[in-house]
């Protein structure tokens, strides 16, 4: 009974912990170790919060990354927000005890009472550690388990060439900057615990890796994101195709009708407004911009050419009609000859000339309409081919040109 009371009092002494600093790094300060393990001197306290020794080999820390949510995928800012749960486990023989002397299998200790790896996410814009005072579980053999829950917003290099059917890999790199690769080594695994799929971007695959040739211990978690494309198709592709189809139908209106020119100009102005909002909605980058940017620019040029053709032919017809009305009457001396040459109806010659101009304009308009429809159909097939087989290699990042530790270029 006295031994149990002593053990209970010793554990109560661990209740006071220092607050965890919210940010990119999680680091444990040195505190006094309880008398339960006999660490009373300052030297022993300092050794208790140092990385455990594993002989000549680095300390192996097993990490399980549970991805519980991925939300707020912002392709305009190239960021993605996610919620993670980290389970870290390692062996610290200094914390082992004799179960026959202290009959307890597991102890729960505050994180700042023992050594823990300080983690930093390289791509993070901000990190929110959910539990300011996490507690570690230690068994009688010295095996330590620590759970860390966090929400973070990280940078992601989206591959948006095939937007809105794009697929990208977003990487979260966890570094232990307080240790070297000779002291610490990570063994990482990832588990997908996302239960909701009602979102624009869904996680198709998760991978982990330990990058080679690093100066500090590191492990990476890769998220494979795929765009479901429903929102972008309804908001971008459908209006663009509808305007193009409406423009082709406008070519069936008679060339002499004044409503045709007004119809074409209205479509062009409406598409200009749509195109200006489209440019703001689509992301842009230094390389491999979305194919939709070029596609909608080609649609704008097609609408512009179609509108200019209608305006020019309508203008030529109107100018020819005015010239026929303002043509001078034949001279009095040659009136008889004109009457004889023109026949019984001299105005028929004027109408015949105007009719010839009208028939020529109608033939030209019909020919242009057929070429325009063929050009639109060909452009659609060309775009589908580019969409299926086109690839783009992004420019290398500035940090990839020179490996870590290399000499800077002059």
Specify the biggest β-sheet. 7 strands, mixed
Task: Tell the overall outline.
Answer: rod-shaped
How far apart are the first and last residues' alpha carbons, in Å? 73 Å
Residue windows where pLDDT falls under 50 for at least 5 positions:
1-46, 331-344
Query: Rounded to an integer, what's the Rg over CA atoms?
Result: 38 Å
Number of helices, where a helix is a run of at least 4 consecutive DSSP H or I residues: 8
Number of extended strands: 12
> Percent of residues in beta strands?
15-25%
Q: What series of H and E elements makes up the topology?
A: HEHEEEEEEEEEEEHHHHHH
The helicity comes to 25-40%
Class computed from helices, strands and strand pairing: alpha+beta
State mean pLDDT (0 to 100 scale).
Answer: 80
Summarize the structure.
The protein is an alpha+beta fold and 410 residues long.
Q: If you had to describe this structure to a student in words, what would you say it looks like?
A:
The protein has 410 residues and is of the alpha+beta class. Helix content is 37%, strand content 24%. It is built from eight helices and twelve strands. Strands 2, 3, 4, 6, 7, 8 and 10 form a seven-stranded mixed beta sheet that branches. A five-stranded antiparallel beta sheet has the order 1-5-9-12-11, with no helix packed on it. The chain starts with a helix and ends in a 9-residue tail after the last helix. Mean pLDDT is 80; it is low at 1-46 and 331-344.
Task: Give the arrangement of secondary structure elements.
Layout: H1 2-12, E1 25-26, H2 42-48, E2 59-74, E3 79-91, E4 106-110, E5 119-121, E6 124-129, E7 135-139, E8 143-155, E9 167-175, E10 184-192, E11 201-209, E12 218-227, H3 230-250, H4 258-281, H5 291-325, H6 335-342, H7 347-389, H8 398-401
Parallel strand pairs: 2-10
Antiparallel strand pairs: 1-5, 2-3, 3-8, 4-7, 5-9, 6-8, 7-8, 9-12, 11-12
């Amino acid at each position: 009974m006295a031994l149990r009371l002593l053990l209970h009092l010793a554990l109560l002494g661990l209740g006071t912990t220092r607050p965890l600093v919210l940010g990119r790094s999680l680091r444990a300060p040195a505190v006094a170790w309880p008398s339960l393990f006999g660490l009373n001197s300052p030297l022993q306290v300092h050794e208790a919060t140092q990385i455990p020794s594993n002989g000549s080999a680095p300390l192996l820390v097993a990490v399980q990354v549970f991805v519980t949510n991925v939300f707020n995928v912002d392709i305009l800012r190239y960021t993605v927000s996610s919620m993670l749960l980290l389970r870290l486990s390692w062996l610290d023989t200094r914390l082992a005890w004799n179960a026959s002397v202290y009959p307890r299998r597991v102890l729960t200790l505050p994180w700042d009472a023992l050594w823990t790896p300080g983690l930093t996410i390289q791509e993070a814009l901000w990190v929110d550690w959910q539990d300011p005072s996490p507690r570690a579980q230690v068994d009688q053999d010295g095996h330590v388990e620590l759970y860390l829950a966090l929400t973070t917003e990280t940078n992601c290099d989206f591959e948006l060439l095939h937007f809105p059917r794009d697929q990208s890999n977003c990487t979260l790199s966890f570094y232990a900057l307080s240790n070297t690769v000779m002291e610490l080594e990570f063994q990482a695994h990832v588990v997908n615990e996302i239960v909701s799929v009602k979102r624009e971007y869904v996680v198709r695959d998760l991978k982990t890796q330990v990058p080679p040739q690093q100066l500090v211990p590191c492990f990476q978690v890769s998220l494979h994101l795929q765009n479901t494309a429903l929102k972008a198709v309804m908001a971008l592709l459908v209006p663009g195709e509808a305007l193009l189809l409406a423009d082709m139908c406008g070519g069936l209106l008679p060339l002499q009708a004044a409503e045709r020119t007004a119809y074409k100009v209205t479509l062009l102005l409406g598409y200009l407004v749509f195109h200006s909002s489209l440019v703001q909605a689509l992301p842009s980058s230094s390389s491999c911009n979305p194919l939709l940017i070029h596609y909608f620019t080609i649609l704008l040029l097609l609408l512009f050419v179609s509108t200019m053709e209608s305006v020019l032919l309508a203008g030529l017809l109107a100018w020819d009609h005015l010239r026929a009305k303002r043509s001078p009457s034949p001279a009095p001396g040659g009136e008889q000859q004109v009457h004889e040459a023109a026949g019984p109806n001299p105005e028929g010659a004027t109408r015949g000339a105007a009719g010839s101009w009208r028939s020529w304009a109608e033939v030209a308009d019909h020919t242009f309409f057929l070429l325009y429809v063929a050009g639109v159909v060909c452009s659609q097939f060309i775009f589908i081919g580019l969409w299926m087989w086109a690839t783009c290699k992004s420019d290398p990042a500035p940090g990839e040109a020179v490996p870590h530790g290399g000499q800077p270029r002059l």
